[in-house]
């Protein structure tokens, strides 16, 4: 395809908003009551981080690894790809993120200590678990099309960004790009559909970027002058 | 009712007679007007059915049945040409599902596309599309968005020569690459050309539409409502009183009549997921059409709004 510059985001939108949100309804109906277990997994992650007991935090990476692979397979590969052929190219990225998280688990590469602006991490994690599912009923679509952590890609990616904001370790920079890129892609899709909730992934990205920048700058600023 | 040889013969004769009705009589009966495909003089109704976005409903059983009802209403209202593409997600299997459900309507005029940058992958993609539709062969195959157009066109011409395809065409949309479209229209023996044309996007009037008339190429018009943006923009705005003179009772009908009244246009393919809209679209093809002055009036009004 030539003349790429003449294409707008709308030209790549293959489905209607109604079809998109119906897809979540069908997905939720097919997987219910797995949502309860996913919510429990999310709460477990938060509790492990809060307690900061070394051996337990290691399991956070394993839980997230399993969820990324599951969401990539069940949602992107099996469901979203039926209305968006591009999803078949995105699903392997979810698998790759799952593999990276698995490596983080095996190497025990993520640690959770006190971090600058850690409130941002908790806020993002809390939004993924409790805020994102509320967006559907708040916008008049009803609970049936809610996006739930561990079931839908947006809250899974957002929660992962929250966890990574609270984590330290050499693998963190490798774990960040895929969730961040997914938030960007999802925001663009929702914006192109004219959906107000596009602000959610964009706001999370902006907050995460600001918190990361602060976390990098602050230790340097606090260094004594030479 | 039991079908006897006599009733079958009567129905067949009635159908054959209807196919050759003058357009004024067809309009009185609420049937869409027809125009000939220049290369064969075969007549087709001037409103078809597009499937971009609206028919991409995945495996959703509720939405699939809704689309099948749209197809049913389309054929009932006298429609024939359905257009799809491998680019349109699940639209192709959706069309196949609808055709199967409707008992494979004989009226169908199947318009498909080949859309791959690999020349070698073209035949396999066409065969996959044919299986999705569940048809023995396509009436029309078009090179979608001019992607790898040279090798694909040669393949399509070979298919036509071999009798496995009736018509060959090319497509573009949103005013892209009109220079290349024009070059192909001048140099290749294509039967159809498809591009965007509507009440506000009128670039095609300058060169493509006159050239199509001159070269005897049938014209399919896509995005007649700018993918729904024009109808949304005009929603709630009062229709001018003079629209009634054309038998138009909605903005969609008025805008469709603008397109269909261009003499070089063969068929417009609005896409919809609503039964009332598909009926409304076909009804727009049945009544009187605007003359040149009225066309200017429609265009000026919509632009002003």
TrEMBL record, chain A:
What Pfam families would the database entry show?
A: DUF6064
> This protein is called what?
MFS transporter permease
Q: Which UniProt keywords apply?
A: Membrane, Transmembrane, Transmembrane helix
Asked if the Swiss-Prot or TrEMBL record annotates the protein with the keyword Transmembrane helix, the reply is yes
**Source organism of the structure:** Bradyrhizobium archetypum
Stored InterPro entries = DUF6064
Note whether Nucleotide-binding occurs among the keywords. Answer: no
Transmembrane region positions?
A: 30-51, 58-77, 83-107, 119-136, 148-167, 174-193, 199-217
TrEMBL record, chain B:
Name of the protein this chain belongs to: Aldo/keto reductase
* This protein's record includes keyword Signal: yes
In terms of Gene3D superfamilies, this protein maps to: NADP-dependent oxidoreductase domain
Q: Which domain of life is it from?
A: Bacteria
Keyword presence, Signal: yes
CDD domains in alphabetical order: AKR_PA4992-like
Q: Which organism is it from?
A: Bradyrhizobium archetypum
Keyword annotations of the record: Signal
Domain NADP-dependent oxidoreductase positions: 47-294
Secretion signal: which residues? 1-27
Give the PANTHER family listed for this entry. D-THREO-ALDOSE 1-DEHYDROGENASE, NADP-DEPENDENT OXIDOREDUCTASE DOMAIN-CONTAINING PROTEIN
Q: Name one Pfam family in it.
A: Aldo_ket_red
């Amino acid at each position: 395809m030539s003349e790429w510059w003449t294409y707008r985001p709308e030209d790549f939108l293959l489905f209607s908003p109604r079809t998109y949100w119906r897809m979540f309804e069908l997905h939720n109906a097919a997987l219910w009551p797995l949502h309860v277990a996913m919510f429990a997994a999310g709460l477990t992650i938060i509790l492990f981080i809060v307690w900061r007991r070394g051996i337990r935090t290691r399991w956070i990476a394993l839980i997230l690894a399993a969820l990324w692979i599951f969401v990539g397979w069940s949602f992107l590969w099996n469901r979203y790809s039926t209305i968006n052929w591009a999803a078949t190219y995105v699903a392997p990225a979810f698998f790759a993120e799952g593999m990276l998280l698995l490596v983080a688990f095996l190497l025990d590469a993520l640690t959770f200590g006190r971090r600058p602006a850690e409130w941002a991490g908790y806020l993002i994690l809390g939004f993924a678990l409790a805020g994102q599912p509320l967006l559907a009923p708040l916008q008049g679509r009803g609970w049936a099309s809610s996006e739930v952590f561990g079931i839908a890609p947006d809250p899974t990616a957002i929660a992962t960004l929250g966890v990574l904001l609270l984590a330290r370790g050499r693998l963190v920079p490798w774990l960040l790009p895929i969730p961040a890129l997914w938030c960007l892609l999802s925001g663009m899709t929702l914006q192109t559909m004219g959906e107000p909730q596009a602000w959610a992934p964009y706001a999370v990205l902006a907050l995460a970027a600001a918190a990361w920048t602060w976390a990098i700058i602050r230790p340097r600023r606090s260094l004594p002058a030479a | 009712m039991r079908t006897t040889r006599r009733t079958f013969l009567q129905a067949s004769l009635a159908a054959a007679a209807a196919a050759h009705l003058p357009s004024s009589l067809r309009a009185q009966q609420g049937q869409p007007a027809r125009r000939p495909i220049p290369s064969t003089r075969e007549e087709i109704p001037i409103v078809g059915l597009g499937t971009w976005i609206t028919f991409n409903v995945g495996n959703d059983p509720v939405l699939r049945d809704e689309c099948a009802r749209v197809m049913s209403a389309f054929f009932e209202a006298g429609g024939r040409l359905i257009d799809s593409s491998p680019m349109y997600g699940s639209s192709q299997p959706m069309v196949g599902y609808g055709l199967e459900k409707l008992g494979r309507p004989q009226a169908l005029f199947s318009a498909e596309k080949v859309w791959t940058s690999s020349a070698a992958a073209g035949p396999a993609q066409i065969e996959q599309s044919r299986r999705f539709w569940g048809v023995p062969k396509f009436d029309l195959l078009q090179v979608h968005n001019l992607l790898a157009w040279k090798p694909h066109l040669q393949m399509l011409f070979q298919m036509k020569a071999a009798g496995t395809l009736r018509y060959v065409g090319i497509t573009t949309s949103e005013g892209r690459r009109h220079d290349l479209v024009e070059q192909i229209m001048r140099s290749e023996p294509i039967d159809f050309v498809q591009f965007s044309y509507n009440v506000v996007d009128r670039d095609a009037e300058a060169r493509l539409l006159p050239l199509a008339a001159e070269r005897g190429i049938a014209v399919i018009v896509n995005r007649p409502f700018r993918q729904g943006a024009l109808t949304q923009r005009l929603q709630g705005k009062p229709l001018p009183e003079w629209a009634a003179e054309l038998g138009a009772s909605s903005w969609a009908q008025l805008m469709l009549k603008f397109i269909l009244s261009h003499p070089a246009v063969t068929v417009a393919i609005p896409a919809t997921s609503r039964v009332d809209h598909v009926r409304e679209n076909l009804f727009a093809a049945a009544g009187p059409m605007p003359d040149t002055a009225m066309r200017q009036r429609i265009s000026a009004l919509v632009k002003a709004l």
